[in-house]
């Protein structure tokens, strides 16, 4: 018998149980501990969400009360009308700016679909990941799309293998149906069957080091959050499929102080930054957090990123609100904590739509 278990990330997973003759399900000791841990995590998450909801409600009420008090304190009816008019004008300007930014972003993404650098996120590893890892990968995909939308020179972004559990998860992303992105249920081998020779899988185990990005090539980033259980799997996949593989030249510029594994969104953002600047060092320093960097120029044979995002969710990148928010969500932090990480004048979550 299999039972449904709510995971800490809000998804459900099937938990196998050994069933006796007419007796209640009997789990092994380790399974019981795991189930108990999941239940505690789910309870803590529900408690956090309730607290965040209450804090948001209180904040809205406080701001409403402050506005009413300032309006009541106006010296005359004319002053109150002027305050109301100014507030309406500010709201209209804010809405107009969002609409304008969304239109400009859509125009850039459509132009990229015609001649941008092709980058594929390979989503065929869902069967190797746990539910919480699939959830983390979904957050990283959201961040990739956000980064691409903000870029002055966006990539022509593809999602391949977008089916099964992975397809179900990405379909749950708010506004996903409006994303200007290629969504393929089939593999990249089928999607690019007529130009297989141009496929290049990015993996730390490759012998070839990228010096530049070739517009004729189609670069593949492995969509895998595996907590280091599947080391070298992306290189093996490339070899088995007879396609090229390569690694970013991170070892030529940085000596990583901890894990050399980067997340999907980090690899993608490094590539985007290089397209903008044509400078690998600038791209690496822009994305990789200072605490993970050693001295520039200290080469190390192992200092290169894995194309797949093998579990190190220490995301770096742009100092924008959406960047900090999505990086925090990818790390499993609560909404409230993510909002507290960083505020600036960058566009909000609407850029995902």
UniProtKB/TrEMBL annotation:
Residues 36-67 have a biased composition (Basic and acidic residues). Keywords: Methyltransferase, S-adenosyl-L-methionine, Transferase. Residues 1-67, 293-314 are annotated as: Disordered. One of its GO terms (biological process) is tRNA N1-guanine methylation. InterPro entries: MT_TRM10-typ, MT_TRM10-typ_sf, tRNA_m1G_MeTrfase_euk. GO terms for molecular function: tRNA (guanosine(9)-N1)-methyltransferase activity; tRNA binding. Residues 105-295 form the SAM-dependent MTase TRM10-type domain. It catalyses: guanosine(9) in tRNA + S-adenosyl-L-methionine = N(1)-methylguanosine(9) in tRNA + S-adenosyl-L-homocysteine + H(+). GO terms for cellular component: nucleus. Its EC number is 2.1.1.221. PANTHER family: TRNA (GUANINE-9-) METHYLTRANSFERASE, TRNA METHYLTRANSFERASE 10 HOMOLOG A. This is tRNA (guanine(9)-N(1))-methyltransferase.
């Amino acid at each position: 018998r299999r039972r449904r278990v709510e995971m800490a990330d809000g998804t459900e997973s099937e938990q196998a149980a050994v069933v006796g003759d007419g007796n209640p399900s009997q789990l092994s000791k380790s399974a019981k501990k795991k189930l108990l841990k999941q239940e505690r995590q789910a309870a803590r998450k529900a408690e956090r969400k309730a607290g965040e909801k209450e804090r948001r409600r209180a904040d809205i009420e406080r701001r409403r009360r402050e506005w009413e008090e300032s309006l009541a304190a106006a010296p005359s009816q004319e002053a109150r009308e002027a305050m109301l008019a100014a507030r309406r004008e500010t709201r209209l300007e804010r809405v107009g700016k969002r609409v304008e930014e969304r239109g400009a972003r859509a125009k850039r993404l459509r132009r990229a679909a015609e001649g941008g650098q092709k980058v594929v996120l390979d989503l065929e590893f869902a069967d190797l990941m746990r539910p919480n890892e699939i959830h983390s990968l979904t957050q990283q995909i959201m961040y990739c799309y956000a980064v691409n939308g903000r870029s002055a020179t966006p990539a022509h972004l593809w999602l391949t293998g977008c089916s099964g559990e992975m397809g179900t998860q990405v379909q749950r992303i708010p506004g996903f149906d409006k994303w200007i992105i290629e969504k393929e249920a089939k593999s990249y081998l089928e999607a690019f069957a007529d130009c297989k020779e141009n496929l290049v899988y990015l993996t730390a185990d490759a012998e070839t080091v990228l010096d530049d990005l070739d517009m004729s090539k189609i670069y593949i980033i492995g969509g895998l959050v595996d907590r280091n259980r599947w080391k070298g799997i992306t290189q093996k996949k490339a070899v088995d499929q007879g396609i090229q593989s390569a690694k970013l030249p991170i070892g030529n510029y940085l000596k990583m102080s901890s894990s050399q594994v980067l997340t999907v969104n980090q690899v993608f953002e490094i590539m985007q930054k290089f397209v903008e600047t044509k400078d690998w060092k600038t791209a690496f320093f822009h994305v990789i957090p200072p605490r993970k960097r050693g001295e520039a120029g200290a080469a190390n044979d192992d200092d290169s990123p894995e194309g797949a995002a093998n579990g190190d969710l220490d995301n770096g990148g742009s100092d924008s609100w959406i960047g900090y928010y999505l990086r925090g969500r990818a790390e499993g932090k609560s909404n409230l904590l993510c909002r507290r990480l960083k505020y600036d004048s960058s566009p909000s979550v609407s850029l995902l739509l």
